[in-house]
Write a structure and sequence with these properties.
Helix 2 crosses helix 5, helix 11 crosses helix 15 and helix 13 runs antiparallel to helix 15. The protein is globular and about 70 Å long. The chain has 22 helices and no strands. It is mainly α. It has 2 domains: about 200 residues, no CATH class; about 270 residues, no CATH class.
């Protein structure tokens, strides 16, 4: 790989010069605050206010809208992330396109609302979809500002945008659900979230559409966006059709159980690793601009995901029943086996991170589209086969899909990024070993100490705590490739707290003194 002449990534390029570790911590704060609010809201809404069939109805409506919502962003985040300068003219053109496509998206969702309601035999799907369509009219006022903040690694700004929106969403959902608004309460919460996000984003990084547009510039952005939109439409079909297929073949109650199991696995995934995922694209863009080899950095990302996500998912799979019973109550017990299957499948999808971001960054959009079509066909095909049997088989099909997904992307990603197969396979082996060690205390608890149904809160906490201790020991004793990065991140995280302790400050002064 040729070494390019380093290019500036300072303020004049619009990328900023923020610390990657600082950005990662702000991204983590943003992700964790959103996770906490969404998690608490979902637990309260599911346990006290809405039944599985009501959650299933909203899930079907949301899945329908989100298949189309790929044109909301229209590739603008990626376009601004890879643009050399992201100057004012570019930002203005992107804002105009975002607003225009938000109206198109809302119109498409509204046009589909009644046919979808008739297809599922649920008239209430129409008003839910209409409310979701209205929320998308507000989204463009946060899309471009957040993209610009991310480009500069200003994740403090994105934290404020995301946290304020999450607070508005949670407050609205809980209030309306308690008042008896049923599934519609979740749709109204989407409107509240979009409105607050838009206001906060415009305060932090105002963007305005304007006249005097350049047709050539519009064509350039739309051409890039159309390729991205087709790609994300294909990906959206694969990601969002599970609820639609299960809803049609197994009913709304089964969809509610399925979506809750999938959501809980996804939430844990983002809790333990997704927090820093948003910094990867701008970070790899900076590495590309500086002409560095991407392979070694990608190996570190794979190692970090394997060290964190695989053990977490193994622990969740073993404790799926006590987790579901504790959080949602016995009315949701049917979601436990579904959660276990989906948690295992998640390990496959984090084995090759950035499978869409890096090809886009490196200019391989067209080829990525064809890989994604094969990915989507495999997802839909395996799910339809499973859902035709039952909801548990539908969840189990995600494991088959995950293994096939790895086969589709592995060779291409290696050729694209240039990582070492030896390093990656060593990471996989180490991550699997750490995952098994982490899950052992929980497996013993539900097999020999108590049953999954009787483990209870104290047993769940004890199993999780012992699993955490086992994880730390396994990372160190098995010499996992990510151990140095994890230790560095932990030290960076606790340093501001430790620096306030007088004894630690005196020790640092001694270490940093010229005579030491």
């Amino acid at each position: 790989m040729k070494t390019a002449t380093p290019t500036s990534s300072g303020p004049e390029s619009g990328r900023g010069s923020g610390s990657v570790k600082s950005a990662a911590l702000w991204a983590a704060a943003s992700q964790y605050s959103q996770f906490a609010l969404q998690f608490i809201t979902s637990v309260l809404v599911s346990r006290f206010f809405l039944k599985p069939e009501e959650i299933g109805m909203f899930s079907v409506a949301l899945a329908t809208a989100m298949i189309l919502s790929v044109i909301q962003d229209f590739g603008l985040t990626r376009y601004l992330g890879r643009h050399p300068t992201a100057d004012d003219e570019t930002v203005r053109h992107c804002t105009v396109i975002a607003v225009a496509f938000s109206f198109l998206l809302a119109a498409l969702i509204l046009a589909l609302a009644w046919p979808v309601a008739r297809f599922y035999g649920e008239p209430r799907l129409f008003p839910i979809l209409a409310l979701i369509a209205a929320s998308y009219l507000l989204n463009p006022w946060s899309v471009v500002p957040v993209a610009l903040l991310s480009r500069r690694l200003d994740f403090r700004g994105t934290f404020l945008v995301n946290a304020s929106g999450a607070i508005a969403s949670s407050g609205c959902a809980l209030t309306l659900a308690a008042l008896g608004f049923s599934a519609e309460s979740l749709a109204w919460a989407m409107i509240a979230q979009a409105a607050v996000r838009a206001i906060m984003a415009q305060i932090l990084r105002p963007t305005r559409p304007g006249l005097g547009l350049n047709p050539a510039r519009l064509k350039e952005i739309i051409t890039f966006g159309s390729g991205s939109a087709l790609l994300y439409l294909s990906g959206g079909i694969g990601m969002r059709t599970p609820d639609l297929i299960v809803g049609r073949l197994q009913g709304m109650a089964a969809t509610g159980l399925f979506s809750r199991g999938v959501a809980l696995a996804s939430q844990l995934h983002y809790l333990v690793a997704g927090a820093v995922g948003s910094i990867y694209y701008p970070t790899f863009a900076r590495l590309r601009d500086e002409g560095r080899e991407l392979g070694p950095y990608y190996e570190r990302v794979v190692a970090a995901h394997g060290a964190i996500v695989w053990p977490a998912m193994a622990l969740l799979a073993v404790l799926s029943q006590p987790v579901i019973l504790l959080l949602y109550g016995p009315g949701w017990a049917g979601a436990a086996p579904l959660l276990a299957y989906v948690a295992i499948a998640e390990c496959c999808f984090v084995a090759l991170p950035l499978h869409m971001d890096l090809p886009i960054l490196l200019g391989h959009l067209r080829r990525l589209f064809w890989f994604n079509l094969a990915d989507t066909a495999l997802s839909v095909g395996t799910l339809m086969a499973g859902a035709a049997i039952g909801v548990e088989a539908a969840a189990a099909s995600r494991i088959v899909y995950g293994l096939g997904w790895l086969c589709i992307y592995a060779g291409w990603m290696q050729r694209l990024v240039g990582f070492s197969w030896r390093a990656i396979l060593r990471t996989y082996a180490a991550s699997l070993s750490v995952a098994l060690v982490t899950a052992l205390p929980a497996l013993w608890a539900v097999t020999f100490w108590r049953s999954p149904a009787t483990l209870g809160f104290t047993g769940l906490v004890a199993s999780g705590a012992l699993g955490g201790i086992a994880w730390v020991l396994a990372i160190a004793l098995l010499r996992h490739p990510a151990r140095a990065d994890l230790a560095g991140m932990a030290l960076h995280l606790i340093h501001p707290v430790m620096s306030r302790i007088p004894a630690f400050k005196r020790r640092q002064n001694v270490v940093n003194s010229p005579d030491s």
